[in-house]
Design a protein that fits this description.
Shape of chain B: globular
Structural class of chain B: mainly beta
Largest sheet of chain B: 6 strands, mixed
Strand content of chain B: over 45%
Radius of gyration of chain B: 14 Å
Oligomer: heterodimer
Order of helices and strands of chain A: EEEEEEEEEEE
Distance between the termini of chain A: 29 Å
Number of helices of chain B: 0
Radius of gyration of chain A: 13 Å
Number of strands of chain A: 11
Shape of chain A: globular
Structural class of chain A: mainly beta
Largest sheet of chain A: 7 strands, mixed
Number of helices of chain A: 0
Distance between the termini of chain B: 40 Å
Number of strands of chain B: 11
Helix content of chain B: under 10%
Helix content of chain A: under 10%
């Protein structure tokens, strides 16, 4: 986990607030991903990026935006948080022949 | 067609027993099948993975069995230990597609009783 760090680790916010989750990695990987985890649904891909100029939507991108500030930094924003965005959020990097993914420790987000 | 279906949702096994978690997929383009292990408060970590050109891969007490014709794969944990208690996710991707996108199963919470 130390190779991929996420801040904050826990966050409680109110409906309508803008919030940013940050991710940094020291693995030197070009690929970075944002997932959300909900009980019984597994992990679902929100956005992914191959480099600072290449951002792609995942399966559940509505209500989210991302920014790739550098190879090592990939942030996720909720422009106007709503309660059903309460979830665990994970950042991951990808590398190797099979694009193996390495996950950060996660951010627990609660929207009240 | 992008789904990966995982079962059971939860599993309780006695120490020393065999834990078996199953996954099924539809997309025949999938060519990489990893399993991830997640402990409470931690991110998922790659446990073991298989390509469809082999039917079985073993690493220590963990074995993946792969049935290409049935489009199914499973994780077997031999001699299960309390330290194996975690949530397990199967996943699949299309390596040749070059996106590295993983499609995850729903997860299985394993409890190994002492």
């Amino acid at each position: 986990d130390a190779d991929v760090t996420q801040t904050p680790r826990n966050r409680i916010t109110k409906t309508g607030k803008r919030i940013m989750l940050e991710c940094s990695q020291t693995k030197g990987h070009d690929r970075m991903y944002w997932y959300r985890q909900d009980p019984g649904l597994g992990l679902r891909l929100i956005y992914y990026s191959f480099d600072v100029k290449d951002i792609n939507k995942g399966e559940i991108s509505d209500g989210y935006s991302v920014s790739r500030q550098a190879q090592a930094k990939f942030s996720l924003s909720l422009e106007s948080a709503i309660p059903n965005q309460t979830a665990l959020y994970f950042c991951a990097t990808g590398g190797g022949a099979f694009h193996e993914q390495y996950f950060g420790p996660g951010t627990r987000l609660t929207v009240t | 067609q992008q789904q990966v279906k995982q079962s059971p949702q939860s599993l309780i096994v006695q120490k020393g027993g065999i834990s078996i978690i199953n996954c099924a997929y539809e997309n025949t383009a999938f060519d990489y099948f990893p399993w991830y292990q997640q402990f409470p408060g931690k991110g998922p970590a790659l446990l073991i993975a298989i390509r469809p050109d082999v039917s079985e891969k073993k690493e220590g007490r963990f074995t993946i069995s792969f049935n290409k014709s049935a489009k199914q794969f499973s994780l077997h944990i031999m001699d299960s230990q309390p330290g194996d208690s975690a949530t397990y996710f199967c996943a699949a991707s299309v390596v040749s597609g070059n996106t590295g996108k993983l499609i995850f199963g729903q997860g299985t919470t394993l409890q190994v009783k002492p």
